[in-house]
Structure formats: C-alpha cells, structure tokens
Design brief:
about 425 residues, alpha/beta, Aspartate Aminotransferase, domain 1, Aspartate Aminotransferase, domain 2, 2 domains, four-stranded antiparallel sheet, 16 helices, about 15% strand, globular, binds pyridoxal-5'-phosphate
C-alpha cells in the first residue's frame, strides 16, 4: 500500500482514476504530453520542501548547497540544448515566464505587438482579461484571410504604423512554421525588441525540427511541459545583455521561492532532450501530424491553412457541419481528448468555436506512428459525422480503450485498469 492510499484514500482514488483515464484515452490536446518516470520522480522529491529565493551562489536562505547544484545543472543543460547565452529556469509556468519577460524589457503602458488571440495567440499576449492586456497596449496582428498563414508584409506594415517597443511571436494554435529571422528583421527595422514564446514548439526546436528562435530573438520564453515533455513549468532564454534584467524580473520582480522540485524535473527533461532518441521523437511528432492531417482531409475535414508543418492541426468543424464545442464533447465521449478552438475570422464565439485543435505529441510519446494516426483519424471521422449517435460514441470508446492500452504511457506502470 502506498503512503498516499494509507493516509488519504480519497485522494489516492482520484489519482488512480486519473492514471486509468490517461492510459485508456487518446490524449490529443496539442499542449499536453507525458513526463517520464524520471521526471515524475524528481518532481515528487524532497526538493518540494526547500526554500531557495535567489540564484545559485546568491540565496536568501541557508542550506542550499544541493539546490545550487540542481539549478546549475538545469541552467547549463538548457543553455546547451538551445544554444543560449543565458537561461532562467525559475518561472513556474509559461504565463509567469511571459510576465517576467515583459517586466524585463518594457515599461507598463508600452506598445507590444502579438498575434490576435482568436487567431492562435495566447492569453498572455494581450488578452483584456489577462495582466498583459491590462498593463500593456497590445496591438494585434492577424493571419492572411486567404492563406490563413502569417503575412510578414502585413506584420511589417503594422509595426511601422504602431511603433511597438516589443514584438511577440510564437503561438498556441498555429499549425505552420514561423520565420523568426523575418520577425527579427521587422523588429530591427522599427527599433523593437523581439520576444519569441516557443511554448508549443520547444521540443521541435530542441530537436532541430523547427527553426530555432534563439539566434534571432532578444529573449525566448517557453513552457517545459508541452512538446519538451518535462514537468509543468516555464523558462526564459536570452542574450547576455538581458541576463540581469531577466533574472531580476523573475526574482524578485514577479516570483518568490523557486519550485526546486520542478527545476529538478526540468533538468532531467533537458537531459532527455539532449539524447539522440529525442530527435527521432520530435521528427515522429511531425510525421504523425502530417499523416493525421492527410487522413482527416481525405475524410472530408477542411484544415486551417490547408495542413500542418508542426505538431498540431486546426480542423474547421464547419466542414463537417458542427461546432468545435460539439466535436470536442462528442470525441470526449469516445475517449479522444481534444479541445475546441476558434479559427481565423471565426464567426462563432470563443466558447463554442468553429475549430478543433488536435496534436500528436502525447500519442507519439506512447510510441504511435503514422499507421496508428490513420486509425485514430478513422475514429475521429466516425464520431464527428454522427456526434449525437450514442451507439457510435460508445462503440468507438471501447475500441479506443482497447487500442490505447497497447501503448504504454511513459511514467505510468501497474495501473488497475477498469473493465472496458
Ligand atoms: C501554454 C502557453 C503559455 C502558458 O503556459 P502556462 O504554463 O499554461 O502558463 C504561454 N504561451 C504560449 C504560446 C502557450 O502555448
């Protein structure tokens, strides 16, 4: 019996139910992934007990010799993995990393350009309900109406007209490659700094499957739990000249004590991403997304921008006659976990949305390849074409559960599977 099940059976049952859910469903939320057993081990370790305000060698508390070792390894591995001058591994999430990045580079009230939220930007890129939209004057750029892709000529014109101090690139629901070199040129021309938020694609960048923003941007923020497959958390990479400003913006600027257990998990994840098999993993994510896209298109789905270059697909559910919300809920009933999303120039509200965002990072972590993607596409098509059919949904759910069990989830063993 585990310590948890002895001390708190109620919570132990909930955790076990979640383990079963993760094994028996197909996780296709593009921002999710499975941390390895090694990452989970350090994340659940005694480092959760320690306060370490400050940075290695400059702490406000005693007893930090091992914390210093841990954070130093995490920093050095992050720098090696991404070829960065400086790394701050303390941000507790992507949102915190972005807040610190803004604090490090601009004053409240400054003009910042970011992709419009309903076209794939993030809440922290200027949403009025987020600190970013309340503290800064965000000017949104948009994708081209026809191609549904970034239009660098339009980005440049908006930059000339609005004179931002900072330009933000990097998105949550953009299925195409991003030309960071082109963004850097625009930023230079208008005298702005370039910040890239690579939260979604960090794993692809680490493996060379996407252009790295590091040589082009003044600073780069990221989560560590998406394609990078680490613990929940964030980080900031920057050039040497911004190192002090970034460190001060994280602590004491926006955070208190660092989450050392999470920093340990980041160190392990960076170490894993430095191994040759991570390159194969990242390539497989992209190949799987391409195979899935092709099969969904062959089945009648229109995909935003006509396809994908990365780990995610934005499917236009109007093409199968339903809303994104309806597709998301029907698929959940069938054990396929995705999320609704707006599509560029959407006519539906963000709570309903016309799009469905579908990603391959988590399934790829379970060892699935293009052949499995084609089977998954078949299930998705069956469900969205009969979203109210209880029989279809239940039939697919059973097939999905049986299929899913064949592919072990990293970090999950000895799970007590429910009868399908
Ligand atoms: C996920 C994401 C974030 C926020 O990360 P959290 O850890 O959820 O705070 C920020 N920016 C982008 C582009 C993201 O995709």
């Amino acid at each position: 019996m585990s310590a948890l099940s002895q001390r708190d059976p109620e919570i132990a049952r909930i955790v076990e139910a979640e383990r079963v859910r993760q094994v028996e469903t197909l996780e296709m939320i593009a921002s999710e992934n499975y941390a390895s057993a090694a990452v989970l081990e350090v994340t659940g370790s005694v480092f959760t007990n320690k306060y370490a305000e400050g940075y290695p060698g400059k702490r406000y508390y005693a007893g930090n010799q091992h914390s210093d070792d841990l954070e130093t390894v995490a920093i050095e591995r992050a720098k090696e993995l991404f070829g960065a001058d400086h790394a701050n591994v303390q941000p507790t999430s992507g949102a915190e990393a972005n807040m610190a990045a803004y604090f490090a580079t601009v004053e409240p009230g400054a003009t910042i350009m970011g992709l419009s939220l309903d076209q794939g930007g993030h809440l922290t890129h200027g949403s009025p309900v987020n600190f970013s939209g309340r503290l800064y004057n965000f000017v949104p750029y948009t994708v081209d109406r026809e191609s549904e892709m970034l239009d660098m000529a339009a980005v440049r014109q908006l930059a000339i007209d609005s004179k931002p101090k900072l330009i933000v690139a990097g998105y949550t629901a953009y299925p195409r490659k991003i030309d960071f070199a082109a963004f850097a040129e625009v930023a230079k021309e208008v005298g702005a700094l370039l910040m890239v938020d690579m939260s979604h694609i960090a794993g692809l960048v680490a493996a060379g499957e996407h252009m790295s923003p590091v040589p082009h941007a003044n600073l780069v923020t990221s989560t560590t739990h998406k394609t990078l497959r680490g613990p929940r958390g964030g980080m900031i990479l920057c050039r040497a000249e911004l190192a002090d400003a970034v460190d001060k913006a994280v602590f004491p600027g926006t955070q208190g004590g660092p989450h050392l257990h999470s920093i340990g998990g980041k160190a392990v994840a960076f170490g894993e991403a430095l191994q040759p098999d991570f390159k194969r993993y990242a390539r497989q994510i992209v190949e799987n997304a391409a195979a899935l896209a092709e099969a969904l298109q062959a089945g009648g789905f229109r995909l935003v921008s006509g396809g994908t270059d990365n780990h995610l697909i934005l499917a236009d559910c109007n093409s199968v006659g339903i809303s994104g919300l309806k597709a998301q809920n029907a698929l959940q009933g069938a054990g396929i976990i995705t999320n609704k999303n707006t599509i560029p120039y959407d006519t539906r509200s963000p709570f309903v949305g016309s799009g469905l965002r579908i990603g391959t990072p988590a399934l790829t972590s379970r060892g699935m390849g293009p052949e499995e993607m084609r089977r998954v596409a078949g299930w998705i098509l069956r469900v969205v074409k009969d979203p109210d059919g209880d029989g279809v949904r239940e039939g697919v759910r059973q097939e999905v559960a049986e299929f899913a069990r064949e592919f072990p989830v990293p970090g999950i063993t000895d799970v007590q599977l429910a009868a399908v």
